[in-house]
Amino acid sequence: MTTLREPPIRPEYVLPLRPAVAVPAAASISLDRFGWLRKPAILLALAVVWEVLARWFDNDLLLPGALQTGRAFVDGILSGELIGYVSVSLAILSQGFLLGVAGSFLLTWLAVSNRFGRELIDTLTSMFNPLPAIALLPLALLWFGLGKGSLLMVLVHSVLWPLTLNASAGFRAVPETLRMAGRNYGLGGLRMVLQILIPAALPSILSGLKIGWAFAWRTLIAAELVFGSTSGQGGLGWYIFQSRNELFTDKVFAGLATVIIIGLAIEHFVFQTLERVTVRRWGMQR
């Protein structure tokens, strides 16, 4: 009969701690403190490359330099011409965007209310979301004529479907445990939507708003390039088109730069602020 042997006991030992190395105070400064300089540095580098290419081509009609475009931009601001065109475009964009957001939330409510509504909205988004809004411009001109109504129609279309798709997907992705927690606290109906569903689906809703804003801004500029003036007033796209007809290429680039600047401003001051005070503060995004 064999006897079991006990495993050998290994001696314990303690590793000595290494002495702490003092880190200079200057080396402990994080580079994140200068994170706000990254985007301006990127824009400055692009402007330098642009100016070098323009000087290499040496043809102001085809490619004006960054400095020449900057002078045209400043002249347009000081004279008030560019500001007038921008104000017309932003006024129409705001109306169309708000109408699209209101319609999207109605469709989203229908999608999450019952199974038939969900299948209906899924079918509609599959049909109309891939359809470019600018493709509806001929019908808009036929139905509403040459004016603000045509622009509002294509803007609502460009916002409605991507926002509905993102918002409905966000509501469906809310965990059941959150819904059960809300019911345990006696929430139901509108209170459940406002206090549980919307905060949980807010990342998807904000993504849909950003996509809808970008689609609406591009659609508006493209539509204004086609017929441009509404009620005798032209927008930023019409300013670009008119400058091209008059061979003021520096003004064309100034108009394009204005489109980019407005897009960057809306992204930074509106959407990033919303994300910072909501989903990032709540720990739902990094």
Automatic annotation (TrEMBL):
Localization annotation: Cell membrane
Its membrane topology: Multi-pass membrane protein
UniProt record similarity statement: Belongs to the binding-protein-dependent transport system permease family.
Coiled coil spans: none
CDD domains in the cross-refs: TM_PBP2
Keywords: Cell membrane, Membrane, Transmembrane, Transmembrane helix, Transport
Top-level taxon: Bacteria
Primary subcellular site in the record, as a coarse category: membrane
Protein name per the record: ABC transporter permease
Gene3D superfamilies in alphabetical order: MetI-like
Residue ranges of domain ABC transmembrane type-1 in the record: 82-270
Species in which this protein is naturally found: Massilia arenae
InterPro entries: MetI-like, MetI-like_sf
Spans traversing the lipid bilayer: 41-57, 82-112, 124-145, 192-215, 221-241, 253-271
GO CC, one annotated term: plasma membrane
UniProt-listed GO biological process terms: transmembrane transport
Pfam families (UniProt xref): BPD_transp_1 (PF00528)
